[in-house]
Write a structure and sequence with these properties.
This protein has 572 residues and is of the alpha/beta class. The protein has 23 helices and 18 strands. Helix 1 runs antiparallel to helix 2, helix 12 crosses helix 14 and helix 20 runs parallel beside helix 21. The longest helix has 18 residues. The structure holds 2'-deoxyguanosine-5'-triphosphate, calcium ion (CA) (2 copies) and zinc ion. The site of zinc ion has 5 residues, from loops. This is DNA polymerase beta.
Length: 572
């Protein structure tokens, strides 16, 4: 049985929900919520890690206890704690906690009084006026609940690209292995590397559609079959994600892949272009009348319109078709172009792996340098380093560099930007480092004017070479703080500071639009892992995906420089 990271995360989320409804210890509840997030966003599969006998307590927020539960889930699909909680409360009841205005007490009350444990039941009960008679509620409360649950039910659910990636890899392998397929490719927003994915779209070339769709709906992660026919099927997986599968003949594979990759806006423009040339473009191919001109490959479909291949990440109707027509398409940066990684933590602050392990792991990912940037003193929750501890780390790095071959460890810090825009460490220690990343980790609520001024002041410090995760957003969790990014980017140009693209799938900050703005202003972007353990370097693929969506080329990215080029760049 295949256990996705998202499945493990779902068990932890359910445990946290059930503990919360049972009014248990808030620290314990938070531990399960944090663990769910860590596992869900993790690049390597925890199932594989368990099978390889790796130490899971290397993961942030995972102690021995949680590591044991993960192992239990990987082996049996569930764990005893969840089963025990499920004997007391129905499993899906936690989804009611996501209805705005419903806390654990109300959820418990609704269940005890009316047996309600799903949003659909809640909607029906509210519509039928069954809630106003519960003691402590009343007509007004019922109306508010009705509106909240209606909004909740109509809200589109999206998933992290990292979660989609785990599902895609396992599902594509399953289809390749067992079904009579010639080609299988993910399409849709996942192929375009959007930071979040609404549903997954898979395109298959096969002469036996019914065998493929029949095989698809029997995949063990399928919870519900939504539709099923000879050439198409849709399912919902246990983690709530929908997957749409489409089967075509090999001769149409490129056209179908192109159609289902989208985006919709890009497709519409492409079809217009075909019409202008008297051609017809659909998911089966490019046609002149009834005569097929192209369809087997995407390259051939584009070529029939006189266009070169347009990378999927660009297909958002943001000028890519004109650029292709005029021979101005960017040569997009690739993972292979990265020479080093400039943002990583160790056990000195909130990382889970040692300095040495991080360096060796970065080297095995093809990096020639790794910047160690632990947090600074003000961030006490992350055991931030003061000047004295940082001085100690500088010595350790010197020793390590004397021993290691094939990678150079750079001395850095992720220094906190204080409320007034000064830095959390004195220049006397910063000047001993190779560089500093400055980041906002506090005071997200400042107004745009004050936040922008604060950040620009920090960038003025001569040792600050990179502004860390510039918008501060956490996908699904925290909106970006209000800030004038245009001004920050222009200021970065003036002071020669790079902007970070933090590759953690929950950040992906800068976003694609800001990457484009930085490129237009001639500001370099640093694509960093922000690794907190040796398992996090795989995140760089998501950062690269976002950078490509932002039209970035190798020359727009700071860490495509060799170490010698980087040091020369920082001399100025
Ligand atoms: P998502 O799933 O919300 O993250 O975004 P997409 O882009 O994956 O959208 P989805 O799954 O609805 O459809 C996949 C692709 O299929 C989409 O990018 C373009 C194509 N497509 C879907 N519906 C239409 C349509 O009505 N017209 C055209 N031209 N293309 C469509
Ligand atoms: Ca989709
Ligand atoms: Ca779809
Ligand atoms: Zn940070």
């Amino acid at each position: 049985m295949h256990i996705h990271n998202a499945d493990v995360a779902a068990v932890f989320t359910e445990i946290a929900d059930l503990l919360e409804i049972e009014n248990q210890n808030p620290f314990r509840i938070r531990a399960y919520r944090n663990a769910a997030r860590t596992v869900e966003m993790l690049a390597p599969s925890v199932q594989t890690l368990v099978e390889e006998g790796r130490d899971l307590s290397e993961l942030p927020g995972i102690g021995a206890d949680l590591a044991g539960r993960i192992t239990e889930i990987v082996h049996g699909g569930t764990c005893e704690l969840r089963e025990q909680l499920r004997r007391e409360l129905p499993p899906g009841i936690g989804s009611l906690l996501r209805v705005p205005g419903l806390g654990p007490k109300r959820v418990k009350l609704l269940f005890d009084e009316r047996g309600i444990h799903t949003p659909e039941q809640l909607l029906r009960a509210a519509q039928e006026g069954q809630l106003q008679t519960i003691r402590g509620l009343g007509e007004k409360a019922e109306q508010r609940i009705l509106e909240a649950v209606q909004a909740q039910l109509s809200k589109e659910r999206r998933f992290s690209i990292a979660v989609a990636g785990q599902v895609v890899e396992a599902l594509v392998a399953y289809l390749r292995q067992l079904a009579p397929v010639a080609r299988v490719e993910p399409a849709g927003s996942y192929r375009r590397m959007r930071e979040t994915v609404g549903d997954l779209d898979i395109v298959v070339a096969s002469a036996d559609g019914p065998a493929v769709t029949g095989h698809f709906i029997r995949y063990d992660a399928v919870a519900r079959v939504l539709s099923h026919g000879p050439t198409r099927a849709s399912v919902e997986l246990h983690n709530g994600m929908q997957v749409d599968l489409r089967v075509v003949e090999e001769a149409s594979f490129g056209a179908a892949l192109n159609y289902f990759t989208g985006s919709k806006a890009h497709n519409i423009e492409l079809r217009k272009l075909a019409l202008k040339r008297g051609l017809k473009l659909n998911e089966y191919g490019m046609f002149a009348g009834e005569q097929p001109l192209a369809g087997e490959t995407e390259e051939a479909v584009f070529a029939a319109l006189g266009l070169p291949f347009i990378a999927p990440e660009l297909r958002e109707n943001r000028g890519e078709i004109e650029a292709a027509r005029d021979g101005r398409l960017p040569h997009l940066v690739t993972l292979h172009d990265l020479k080093g990684d400039l943002h990583a933590h160790t056990t000195a602050s909130d990382g889970r792996s040692s300095l040495r392990d991080m360096a060796q792991e970065a080297r095995s990912h093809g990096m020639t340098y790794l910047g160690i940037t632990d947090h600074s003193q003000q961030l006490t929750v992350a055991s931030g380093l003061d000047a004295e501890r940082l001085a100690q780390q500088i010595d350790e790095i010197d020793q390590l560099n004397a021993e290691l071959d094939g990678i150079t460890v750079l001395k850095g810090t992720e220094v906190d930007i204080r409320q007034d825009g000064t830095l959390d460490l004195p220049d006397s220690i910063l000047q001993r480092l190779d560089y500093a990343i400055a980041s906002v980790h506090t005071r997200f609520g400042l107004g745009s004017e004050a936040q922008t001024a604060r950040i620009m002041r920090a960038m003025d410090n001569r040792y600050v070479r990179i502004l860390g995760h510039p918008s501060g957003r956490l996908l699904f969790e925290r909106e970006p703080y209000p800030v004038d990014m245009g001004r920050i980017i222009r200021h970065a140009k003036e002071c020669g500071c790079a902007l970070e693209l933090d590759s953690q799938p929950g950040r992906l900050d800068l976003n694609d639009i800001y990457c484009m703005m930085a490129k237009d202003e001639g500001v370099l972007v640093s694509i960093d892992s922000d690794a907190h353990s040796v398992l996090d370097f795989d995140n760089l693929r998501w950062g690269i995906g976002q950078a490509r969506r932002g039209w970035l080329e190798k020359k727009n990215v700071l860490n495509t420089k060799t170490l010698a080029q980087l040091k020369a760049h920082w001399k100025h």
